[in-house]
Write a structure and sequence with these properties.
mainly beta, single chain, extended, Immunoglobulin-like, Ig-like_fold, 907 residues, signal, IPT/TIG domain-containing protein, 9 domains
Length: 907
Amino acid sequence: MSRRFVAIAAVSLLFSGVVAGVGASPAAAAAGAPVELRTAGKPCMREAPGPYLSPDLLNAARAVVLQARYPGETTVAEVESDFEVWDVADDQNRQQWRRGANEETGDLYVQLEDDAKQLHGVTYAWRVRVLDGEEVSPWSETCYFTLDRVGGDAPAVASEQYPAGSFNRGGIGVPGTFTLTAATDDVVAYEYRFSASEISGDAEWKTADAPSVGAPVTVTFTPVAANYHGLNVYAVDRAGNRSELAGYDFWVRDTRPTVFSADYPELWGESTCCANLDFNVGVAGEFQFNGTDDVEKLAWRIDQGGPSGTADVNDDGDAVVRIAPTRAGVQTLYVRGVTAGGTAYPERSYRFLVDDGPLVTGDVDRDVVIGSTASFRAAPRVAGVTAYVYWLFYRSDDGEPRKVTVPAKADGTADIAWPVSDIDQQGLYVQSRTADGTLSVARRINSGVNGAEPSVTRTGGGEPGSVATFVARTAMTNVADYTVQFNGDAATKRTLTPAADGSATFEFTPTKTGYQYLHIWATNTAGIRTDTGSASWNVANGPKVTSTDFPVTGAGRVAAGTFTFTPRLPVATSYQYEINFGAVGTLPAQADGSATLTWTPPASGSYTMDVRSYNGSASSQLTTYRFRVAPADVRITSVSPSSVLTGAVRTITLQGTNLHPKDVLQVTPAGGTPLTATVTSATGTTLTADVDLTGAPAGTASVTLQPYGAEQPVVSVPSAFTVSPPPSLQATKRPTISGTVAVGGVVKVAPGTWTPVATGYRYQWAANGVAIKGATGTALTVPPAAVGKRLTVTVTATRTGHPSGTAASAATAAVAKGKAPKATQKPKFTGTPKAGRKLTAAVGTWSPKVDAYRYEWRLNGKLVKGATARTLKLKAAWRNKRITVTVITKKAGYADGRATSASVKVR
């Protein structure tokens, strides 16, 4: 068999620098050398720097994989591949990686798993040959690769249209460009994702390739929603590493008007609940539109061919419109603002219900007892109602309902009654119908069913042979009979005739001990049956044995514990007991007939205790109580909290198994003296204890638990928790401002949330960053000086023993002017309205109080030029004309108020 090997004189020469090729420069491989070289699955790059690789992204082993194939033949089973890897800047120090080779395929393979030998930023060369006994193949060609493990700092983001942190820029449908600039020069792409607070769900990540390595990229984004938006960006380098995440926040101006109506409330989701029944088809309701301050008018329309129109706005872009819907049912109002230049902003949709369904009274929102009749009265809310259609709905029925038509009376009303015969009935729907067949909105009436299952009381019957007396009652009327059955035994089934009050009294004598139960139901004269009622009890006369120290489940400890004996006989004077069939013990009963036995188990194992109670010579049945004793497998799985403040008594909680109230717990602070804790509770899986950490040093503390009982090893947790100094308060949610941001309006602050929880707060309000003197409360009445400025509030949170913390709210919108003062009493004249005489304007009364007045006099509605004083001398030419005065108020920070007097005729 031929071999393409180059023989050498001695095996030892394989490891010498000359023969191994140390110092050799890269060259083409000789014939017979390994071929099909691949670096991390990529073809061999024969020039530096080769491919850029990030091991963390390559495979599960997070390692660079080198591969080749040897084309020759071998006969020796112990074939090795000899990979040589070196830093191109230091080719004297080469790594040698020996691995086996696949004899059948000739595949050569190695994973470079030692991170200490594969350094970030280094360019490596590698080659490979095959060793077969004392023979060696030629070296392969040399391949190169460069390691890049770090993605670098976050890229920078900039936008002219939507600057970072900006408020009310652009708008829905207004595109913006965002320039993404890498912090390093090896970036080839950017991954980015836009998000908006008005859009639920995660947006998809997109990729933008850089036009050249390290170059910035500009992406375009057109908002489809308003308010807060976010942009997250990663820069991706040549090795595929992601940079740190860049977060970019901006706000999109909401140019859609807001809509509010108390007359036709907005519907949310798929709900059609809670319409205002004072309004109906053709009844005009008030809608308040609040547009942006740059709109000239607001255009509105109702879908499906409903009414439409436009409304002029006030200086703030607001309007109040009265709209009379032309049809019933759910419909949508669309409103958009239009600027003076004709720009139409996006529409705001407002979904509401026009409810023309009937008014229904009677057994509404109440449970009707099965077997009775539910009664309702329907009254029309539209004209011309001739009938009503109703149908029942059921808890589990999803079939087609059976609809019933009831004619209306002369007054338009109708009475509806349905017998309650099915517990599944839940209520009904009612529609009114006019002569032309038009149906109203369906009114849902919830009217549940009380199943009236009989209730049962018992006296006696706790021991075999004693009579149990039962009294059964049901809320259903006209009861014809009760049916009762005991313990599922058909032989005990009987029918009972009720007394005059509808109750039934019956007896049962248990003949054996143990669990007893009964089922009972009632049937009325119409054959309608109630739900089935039940009752259960236990029959026994052996004493009851209980023990928390030696429970019937789990195991008791090898330590003293107690058992409590409670009699089931009418009187108990003593008890006899034996454990594991040993000596019989006698225990006298206490005054209440009970007895307590204290016992220490001699060893681990399973135990059986038999107990009888005695009343003189009469004995009870034998009660057998089985339990197990064993050293408890006590474990501590966790200690909380992980950090405990020094300086006082603190509570710690251990989670684990078999934790006992009598366990002894010690806490040892770092470098300190062990402190014995006080166990306050233990439930098996949780142990709570108080430990006094006054003066305890900061650092890691250990806990040691000595379990209660014999043969219990100590359980320790070396680094259980950290004793920490009190932390300063930090805001987990910044303060927020709510209220009316206008002069005279009241704004309030919610202090946010803090960790640790704050116990007190201090406040300071500011306008455009300047503190408002004396504004230190939770609420602020906006002063006139704040007009046009943005309000903020700084909250200082305090907690005893902790450094205080501060946090500032976001700025509000600019403070608007207060609403114009209104005349609570209109202006009027004093003086005689006669030519040559003077009239004096009385300004009336205003709320709020104003700073100054000015006057406009009109004659037959036309302004009298120059007449701006409070008084006006009447001219002869004005005879028989009517004169009025308009008083205009001035108040700092408020819009001007206006009010006009009644007119008088000049004589």
